[in-house]
Each structure stands twice: as structure tokens, then as C-alpha cells.
Amino acid sequence: MANIPKLLKEWRALQPLDEKLERDINQQFMIDFNYNSNHLEGNTLTYEQTKLLLLFGDTIGNASIQDYEEMKAHNVGLELMKAAAKDKNRMLSEHFIRELNQTILVRDFYKMSRDSNYRYKIHVGVYKTRPNSVVTSTGEIFDYASPEETPSLVSDLAKWYCNEEQRGKLKPEELAAMFHYRYIRIHPFEDGNGRIARLLVNYILLRHNYPMIVIRSDDRQNYLKTLHQCDLLSGKIPYDRAHADLQQTKPLIDYISGILENKLPVLIQLAKGEISEFIEAKDNEKSGQKNGQKTAEKIDTENGTENDTVNQKIIDLIQQMPKITIDKIAVQTGKSRRTIIRRMQKLKTDGFIKRIGGDKGGYWKVKK
Prior knowledge:
Blueprint: H1 4-13, H2 19-39, H3 47-56, H4 65-86, H5 94-105, E1 109-112, E2 119-122, E3 134-135, E4 141-142, H6 150-167, H7 172-186, H8 193-207, H9 220-234, H10 238-241, H11 250-271, H12 304-320, H13 326-333, H14 337-349, E5 353-356, E6 363-366
Antiparallel strand pairs: 1-2, 3-4, 5-6
Helix pairs in contact: 1-11, 2-3, 2-4, 3-13, 4-5, 4-8, 6-7, 7-8, 7-11, 9-11, 12-14, 13-14
């Protein structure tokens, strides 16, 4: 945590960013945050499917309609959260928390009970009407707040946050972590609680001019372990967990601070032009780079087998969508635009594909 003030000072000194760079950073965060936060909750869309959906509105693949709708709705929730965070005159409220839940879940739906004996209706934006305790991996029953005490606890949480924000005694990362833990241990809704918690962490960070963060889905075990460490410090009573103090939430404060300490240096490198891309997602290997390293397309090292695989993917995509763009093919294959242009030119020369018409209004045709 000691490094965060220094890194923030350097990051803020680089503002305002170049308009295109800022747009690219925001777009990349949109993809990475939506993918990871939903993936943590079991959404089956791949990283490429998420990218195609959010950038182009395409729904390629065999994922369920619900997963596509869920991802789009979560992105609407992200934009709603960002707008609220930037409005300094608008304080966090219980109403806004319920609005976020209604936004990301879209509409009422049915869910199967844990024992699969019956199904019950989820009312979006409405507090839970039945206990939502869980059974841990060790067989213990973990109790969240009861339906009866939930409204008052959420109201207390919103008031606590507004008071602490005005006092200014807590660091934003401390505020964000404490809010996350207190909220998630109330578990006020039938569904969507984890996603709301992570949205509100970023609400707090953005409101205090911090970069927003991604809790990666491939770090799920560490994330859950950190929450459990807070449980051990805060006790077994739901009411106590909903009022956990600074010391009791220290594991989560350290976890969120660690993400910030890792992200800020990379953002600084990005702003200085020392790297060209920063991806916070599980499928980093598909981008051809690792975080913090310069992007370098391995054009000269592609072997014949890999070329054949890429070529076949291009042909398959053209057969499915003759009007597909080069940018969309690049996203779907995980290759750079330059690589796709080169491969498609070779396919045209070899007589495999043909362009019918111009760039606008034209389409691709597979010849053989």
C-alpha cells in the first residue's frame, strides 16, 4: 500500500491522456471487467465471444441466450456505475444499489433450488425473501443476513459509506474493500451480489480518481480465500460481518491494494508509450503477449500448421458471415489485424477466397 500514493502521483501527472489512448484503455477495461466479473459467476462466454459481443454486437458460438443477455446487461450496469461515480453531487444510496441489481439482471426469472426439488422466482431489484445461506466445501453452513434484517443493513451500509467519504479518514482502497466485504456478507439479493460488489468497488475507486480494477476469474481461489480470511476475523454473526471494521477487512484491503500496485505501473508505461497494450483477462495468452511486455506479432515464427489453422478459421468465418470485417476476424481468431490481412491476401492469391464488391456493401466468397 505504501507504493500507491507515489504511483498515483506519477499516473495523475501524465493526465490528460491522448484521446485515442484513453479511449483504447477504457474499451479494453470494458471487455476485461465484463468478462472476468461474469466469468467468476459462471457465465460461459469466452473472452473472444465477449469481445465480439461488446464491440460488434455479434453472438457467435453455442452459449445460451441468457449468457449473452447477461453480459450485455452487465455492461449497461458498468456504464450506469461510471456515470454515477462521476456525479460528485450524487451520493451513494440504497435506491442506486437496487437499480444496479435490476439493470444487470434485466428481468424477473426462475431459478432452481439447491436440491433441485423446485424452482423459485427471482425478482430483480428486490431484496431476498428467503435465506440465502450457503454450504461451504467443509460442509459448514455459512449464513448471510436474514431477509428481515437486510433492508436496514443495506440502508446502514449506504449511510456509513457516505459518512466515511465525507470524513475522508479512510483511503479509497480501504473504503472500497470494507464496502465490498460488508455488502457481500449481507448478500441482499437473490442473485447478482458478487457482480454488484465488484461494480461498487470500482464506483468508489473511480469516484476518488483511482483507476478501476479487474478481479480476474483465474484468481478466483485467492479472491475467495481472502474473503474467508475476513470471515475468520469478523466472526460468525451476520450482523457483525455487515459492520466489519478496518482490521477485520485487512486481508481484502491488501488484496485490492495489490491489484492497484500491479496495475498502476503498467498504466504509467502505457501512458509513456513504453508498451502498446494492457489486457486484464484470463485469456491473455490469446493476445500474443503478457501484461507489461511490448506487443510483438510473431510473424516470422509462424509454422505451417499454425498458418493452416488460421486459414481454416478465416474460411469458416467467411462461410458463416460473408460480410464479416477484417477487424471481426482478428478478434475471433485472436490474431492481429496485420496478420489477418496478410493471411487473407495469401488466400486470395491462392484462389481460396474472393472479394465481391467494394469495401462498403461488398462481401467475401469462398471459392474452394
